[in-house]
Known about the structure:
It is a single chain. Helices cover 43% and strands 18% of the residues. The chain has 213 residues and is of the alpha/beta class. α1 runs antiparallel to α4 and α2 crosses α3 (45-53).
Amino acid sequence: xxxxxxxxxxxxxxxxxxxxxxxxxxxxxxxxxxxxxxxxxxxxxxxxxxxxxxxxxxxxxxxxxxxxxxxxxxxxxxxxxxxxxxxxxxxxxxxxxxxxxxxxxxxxxxxxxxxxxxxxxxxxxxxxxxxxxxxxxxxxxxxxxxxxxxxxxxxxxxxxxxxxxxxxxxxxxxxxxxxxxxxxxxxxxxxxxxxxxxxxxxxxxxxxxxxxx
Length: 213
């Protein structure tokens, strides 16, 4: 399957389609068209058809896609057809919130470890998961065969933590630390900076003409 060779732009859209399908299946919707997906995602119907066609023929021309069948295919393409174990490194407010959400709301993810360096956080529970010291990371990664980490540590600590994670076998990192981290080509990083996202959004609230000087 050409999943690994797919452009990152397509890969980022697939979970959006999956979320829509999950919601529609709960409402007993059996057939869904690219036009329906378009109306709920903001992507064009043509773009959606091209994205899905990259991985094969999943629909019937003039009819649409069987929602359950398409969902099953997307799960396999993304790699969510089996539960994925992840760890959260950094158990501050953001780390706890992200960990709690994925423990309680994300059916495809299993958070198997949360870690921090702050003695005041270590030993606390997040949905029955105990926050542990960083030196417990190798043990948890090995026990649960973890390959994905969520990073919510301060910028000054990010690179050293990332180096440790990579040494222990982590190959995919969702980075919330407000800094660039360096990784080998074999490791994939998605950077998310909520502060920059918010500041960028504020641009659209101004009614004044934007002029570059």
